[in-house]
Amino acid sequence: MERKIRVLIAKPGLDGHDRGAKIVAGALRDAGMEVIYVGLRQTPEMIVESAIQEDVDVIGISILSGAHNTIFSRVMSLLKDQGAEGQILVCGGGIIPQEDREKLLAMGVSRMFGPGTATSEIVEFIRQSIGEGMGEAQET
Amino acid sequence: MASNTEAMRFRRPWSEQELLEQFIKGKTLALARVISLVENEAPGYRQLLSSLYHRTGKAKKIGITGSTGAGKSTIVDELAKLLVGRQQTVGIIAVDPTSPFTGGALLGDRIRMQDLGLHKDVFIRSMASRGSLGGLARATREVSVVLDAFGKDFILIESVGVGQVALDIAEVVDTTVVVLVPESGDSIQAMKAGLMEIADIFVINKADRDGADRMAVELQAVLDLGRRNNDWDYPVLKTEARHGHGVDLLLEHIDRQRDYLVRTGYLKKRKEELLRAEVRQLFSETVREKMERRLAGEGSLDEVIADILEGKLNPYLAVDQLLERVKGAEI
């Protein structure tokens, strides 16, 4: 059975603009990935617990509310508490000022995708980071 | 084993021993990883299952099936809430379809299970059907074995949204709940073969909509005409799962059905039947894989194909020839 890249897509906080998250979820599905879409109003605790139960390779967080520094730092520290630090690729999408972007990367977030990003760029980034062709390599 | 499977930049490889130790300690991370190995049929997954098997047999397995949008996830969510209220631990497997075109999947059942996500006694796993057409994924049974071994008291399995066929779920669980909505059709629909034949309990969800009462009456009337087991009264229940209405009654009937299975000895018989099907399937899969690998390795297949193309052989005789070649060989 071919191994699939599994991605959790979540939207934290109270902001209800989930169009971007849905577009990304659809694009990753069309790229052959298994997308666990948990949708709106997620807390960092919910995101990390879901990611662990689902054994995902990637967490994608869509955030437009401006609370990115708080949310991502909480997600990263919860991953650490759970012993999953560095084992899951964490990315985000939204409007993030440049100085915050650097702060997030320093925290261990792998990439922030801003407005205008082509979905193919996201697909490519995930494939390259997780390791393409891993499915074939794992056939017995 | 694990190092081979998890040769990825972001994954820490676990040794099999470490994985089992953490699993037995009840660590969620280990449970999730074991499920992935089983789901991906990673090298060594059968040994892994085999070393966990003695821990299984206690879980009660309930299947929830029905058409898309009937409210299966919401019912599962409400059932799980009631079960944890009774101090029971719950494992949920929620299956959604894989695209036959891209191989990708959008797994959205967790959206309806938000309240449970953080409950320490609940573990939810979404599975993509990965090419299986029976309403479950090929590995759903094995994943339920893993959850059973982990010590879950109840395992709720939610199928893909299905129409009239896709009946695999009944081969995996002890109790099958079929979820319908008031618009699901008239009494003739209910008499048709397929989905309606695998239900132990019927639920008409969204019962606040028009036609629910009529549908319940018609369905009950059809059931009264005679069914597989005359000594089990197939209940037809009305729920409004979104508001939690009626799900307590559903759980009561799930308990009742279980008592009935135990009392009559059907549970034992059923387990035996399921086991027979499982072992047969595992055996034939194993033989097939080995034979196919052998054929591919030897080049016999290429030879007979060439002969057929040249008109020296036909596909039917070719199979006889291939069989002759593998006969007596070590499998």
Q: How does the SSE layout of this entry go?
A:
The complex is a heterodimer of chains A (140) and B (331).
Chain A lengths: L5 E7 L6 H12 L3 E9 L1 H10 L4 E6 L4 H14 L7 E6 L3 H10 L3 E3 L5 H12 L3 H4 L3
Parallel strand pairs in A: 1-2, 1-3, 3-4, 4-5
Helix pairs in contact in A: 1-5, 2-3, 3-4
Chain B lengths: L1 H4 L10 H9 L3 H12 L5 H8 L7 E7 L5 H14 L4 E7 L8 E3 L14 E7 L11 H11 L3 E5 L16 E6 L6 H5 L3 H4 L2 E4 L7 H13 L11 E3 L8 H18 L1 H33 L1 H10 L5 H12 L5
Parallel strand pairs in B: 1-5, 1-6, 2-4, 2-5, 6-7, 7-8
Helix pairs in contact in B: 2-3, 3-6, 5-10, 12-13
Question: How would you characterize the overall build of this protein?
Answer:
The complex is a heterodimer of chains A (140) and B (331). By secondary structure, chain A is of the alpha/beta class. Chain A has a single domain, classed as Rossmann fold (3-Layer(aba) Sandwich). Chain A is built from six helices and five strands, in the order E-H-E-H-E-H-E-H-E-H-H. Chain A has a five-stranded parallel sheet, with helices on both faces. Helices cover 46% and strands 13% of the residues of chain B. Chain B has three domains: 1-54, no CATH class; 56-264, P-loop containing nucleotide triphosphate hydrolases (Rossmann fold, 3-Layer(aba) Sandwich); 273-326, no CATH class. Chain B has 331 residues and is of the alpha/beta class. In chain B, strands 4-2-5-1-6-7-8 form a seven-stranded parallel sheet, with helices on both faces. Chain B is globular. Chain B has helices at residues 2-5, 16-24, 28-39, 45-52, 72-85, 140-150, 187-191, 195-198, 212-224, 247-264, 266-298, 300-309, 315-326, and strands at residues 60-66, 90-96, 105-107, 122-128, 154-158, 175-180, 201-204, 236-238. In chain B, helix 9 (212-224) links the parallel strand 7 (201-204) and strand 8. Residues 1-9 of chain B have low confidence and may be disordered. At the A-B interface, helix 1, strand 2 and helix 2 of A face helix 3, strand 3 and strand 4 of B.
